[in-house]
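May I ask for whichever protein you like with its backbone structure tokens?
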Amino acid sequence: MSVDGRFHDIERADVMAVADRHLVPRASAVVDEVREAVAGWRGYADRAGLTRASADRMAEAMPRW
């Protein structure tokens, strides 16, 4: 996935720049909701029955901002 042409090292500021350009309402709140969901990834993976290895690979692809 890319954000504003970037595929790596995507920062919150990159996401917010795109949201501002496209006048996305409540963009900051939406980003916060996504961050909260990503932070709970391990719980979702466990409940879904993913193997630890699969969950680890998925976690590596998730943003850390």
